[in-house]
């Protein structure tokens, strides 16, 4: 049976840290479904469509990765696509408490879907979408931190 994992997040926008997690997940699972969760209170810079396009371009070399979006509960989405697992990235200890809370809640909602954590490469352990946006806003060099198409999309956003 083909094993599908969901990689949920805001991806506003996708960074090389996210991409590292997605690439690693795609080596372990048969199918990886990257889903943009559109129900958080966060103010986003990119629309869901823009974020989807950026992820599609960045993962074009990974044939078992699909991109989607959802407005509801992540665990309901995972059930609806028949996922066996949820994959999240871990950077530093600061991620741990938040992730533990979400994972425990998801387990109450559906104990059959397992959550897996993948540690990012050391070089991306400080990296977040927010810090990338902050640096890009003031014209800093982000070429090592995000895929090419994200770099140009950010430049365009902040020129407007
Ligand atoms: P969320 O709002 O759900 O935290 P994000 O888009 O910020 O969404 O992150 C999605 C997932 O990617 C989370 O599991 C987060 O921990 C992980 N992540 C974010 N940045 C990195 C990074 N630099 N390295 C590894 N994982 C990361």
TrEMBL record:
Pfam families: CTP_transf_like. The keyword Phosphoprotein does not apply. Keywords: ATP-binding, Coenzyme A biosynthesis, Cytoplasm, Magnesium, Nucleotide-binding, Nucleotidyltransferase, Transferase. It is found in: Cytoplasm. The keyword Cytoplasm applies. It catalyses: (R)-4'-phosphopantetheine + ATP + H(+) = 3'-dephospho-CoA + diphosphate. Its EC number is 2.7.7.3. Residues 7-134 form the Cytidyltransferase-like domain. Its cofactor is Mg(2+). Pathway: Cofactor biosynthesis; coenzyme A biosynthesis; CoA from (R)-pantothenate: step 4/5. Reversibly transfers an adenylyl group from ATP to 4'-phosphopantetheine, yielding dephospho-CoA (dPCoA) and pyrophosphate. PANTHER family: PHOSPHOPANTETHEINE ADENYLYLTRANSFERASE. This is Phosphopantetheine adenylyltransferase. It comes from Sporosarcina pasteurii (Bacillus pasteurii).
């Amino acid at each position: 049976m083909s094993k599908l994992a969901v990689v949920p997040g805001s991806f506003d926008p996708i960074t090389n840290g996210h991409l590292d997690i997605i690439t690693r997940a795609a080596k372990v699972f048969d199918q990886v479904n990257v889903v943009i969760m559109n129900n958080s209170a966060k103010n986003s810079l990119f629309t869901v469509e823009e974020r989807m396009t950026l992820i599609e371009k960045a993962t074009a070399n990974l044939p078992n990765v699909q991109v989607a979006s959802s407005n509801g509960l992540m665990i309901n989405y995972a059930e609806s696509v028949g996922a066996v697992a949820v994959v999240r990235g871990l950077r530093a200890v600061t991620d741990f408490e938040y992730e533990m809370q979400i994972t425990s809640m998801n387990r109450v909602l559906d104990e059959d879907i397992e959550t897996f954590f993948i540690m990012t490469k050391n070089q991306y352990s400080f990296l977040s979408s927010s810090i990338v946006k902050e640096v890009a806003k003031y014209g800093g060099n982000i070429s090592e931190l995000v895929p090419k198409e994200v770099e140009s999309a950010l430049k365009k956003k902040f020129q407007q």
